[in-house]
TrEMBL record:
One of its GO terms (molecular function) is succinate dehydrogenase activity. It is found in: Cell membrane. This is Fumarate reductase subunit C. The gene is frdC. It holds the Pfam family Fumarate_red_C. One of its GO terms (cellular component) is plasma membrane. Belongs to the FrdC family. The keyword Membrane applies.
Length: 131
């Protein structure tokens, strides 16, 4: 049996996500993957430079001191912090934490995740600076 009706196809403009703040923020958060790719490539290049000897490493370090690279790394850090903040806010909402038949809200979990992150950061910086 065939029908002569045409299916309705809703038109979708390429800028559909720009109409609501929620979608704009979503696109910004998802866009944090681009700086992450930059930083991943940078780390891989650093590993190869470290593997290839002191001259290669010195060249890599001088590349890292370039003001454009410093700006790109600052943008990458800001993107990583934004993504971390939104992930810490989202992850507890997806988990059902129940203690003694009471469902726990996400606030203690978020604070706990931030505390673990802060402690880990301090330990890593302490080891990197004073070891």
């Amino acid at each position: 049996m065939t029908t002569k009706r045409k299916p309705y196809v809703r038109p979708m403009a390429p800028n559909w996500w720009q109409k609501l703040g929620f979608y704009r923020f979503y696109m910004l958060r998802e866009g944090t993957s681009v700086p992450t790719v930059w930083f991943s490539i940078l780390l891989i290049c650093g590993l190869f430079a470290l593997k290839n000897g002191p001259e290669s490493w010195e060249s890599f370090v001088s590349f890292l001191r370039n003001p454009i690279v410093v700006i790109l790394n600052a943008i990458t850090l800001a993107a990583a912090l934004l993504h971390t903040k939104t992930w810490f806010e989202l992850a507890p909402k997806a988990a059902n934490i129940i203690i003694k038949d009471d469902k726990m809200g996400p606030e203690p979990v978020i604070k706990g995740l931030w505390a673990v992150t802060a402690v880990a950061t301090v330990v890593i910086l302490f080891i990197a600076l004073f070891w």
